[in-house]
Amino acid sequence: MSDDFNESVKRVLAARVANRCSCPDCRALTSGPQDDPGKAVNLGVAAHITAASPGGPRYDPDLLPEERSGPGNGIWLCQNHAKLVDNDPTHFPVQVLLKWKSDAEADARDRVGKTGINTGNPNIAIDLGARVRVRAVVPRSNEQVDFSLVQDTGTSFVFRKSDSDRTVEIPKSFVEKIHNFGTTQPVLVELGGRLQWVSARKQFEIFPDKPADAYGIGKDVDFGYAGRLGINGKFARQTRLPFLLIQGWNVYYDLDGTYLRLPGSDCDQILVVQLGAGA
User: Fold this and answer.
1) Helix, strand, or coil here: 193?
2) Structural domain of 187
3) pLDDT digits over 167-225, tens only?
4) pLDDT-based confidence at 33, cuts 50/70/90?
5) Which of 207, 240, 264 is the last residue of a domain?
6) How many CB atoms lie within 10 A of CB 188?
7) pTM of the entire structure?
8) DSSP H or E stretch at residue 182
9) Cis peptide before 57 (omega within 30 of 0)
10) How far, in Å, are 33, 38, 39, 234, 270 from residue 216 at the CA level?
11) 174 secondary structure, DSSP code
12) Which of 28, 54, 147, 151 could join 132 via S-S bond, C-beta 3.0 to 4.6 A?
């Protein structure tokens, strides 16, 4: 028997995070209007932190049925992240999901009754030369790379990547929040979209959509797509990506910023290329 959530619990989980995905690299809005004025679309999922039934991801036999089906065991996610955390429970253990849930609820609590922290105000400022980290960045590994502010044009910031001479210009209208933690810590710049490495152009670009998962936003293609475009890569199971990335492979990003995904019945496959190849 499966200890599923009832509709009341689902509504509570969604409301406690303002109907946004709880993944810190996503925060996608999961509800909105349909064309029919009497209906709304919902892309959110009330996911179990520990599985609803034996054999499921992170199942905890010590929980009572009412605990397993209660709001304390639930987390609100977009459909992409709900699938991701259940497909890879080792990478997304209970502790990680509880932290996501806590942080998402705290963020929603801070926003209640308040206007946006920044709505593209050109008067926002960062000191020239300041160390900066940007979120969200795709691939996610680049989140730990420092940038430095080299120019403030008035309407945008120009940052230089610390490990190269590459620069990127980010319009201030894309900046949602700026966190300054003091002189010893880099300034954290949170974007309304994403800063992403595009394989074919070999440069960072700005995209308006938040990443759906650690690898960005996927695009379903057929097996021959890469060959037709002359991309020298291979499709690998998504569960093997962390191992391949350590070995020097890279997720390939198309010109529209999407990674190329071959849908599978139990696990998707993602196109990867060797460093310096495929573009």
Assistant:
1) strand
2) 131-207
3) 889 988 888 888 887 667 888 899 888 898 888 888 888 888 888 888 888 999 998 88
4) confident
5) 207
6) 15
7) 0.52
8) none
9) no
10) 25, 33, 29, 18, 12
11) G
12) 147
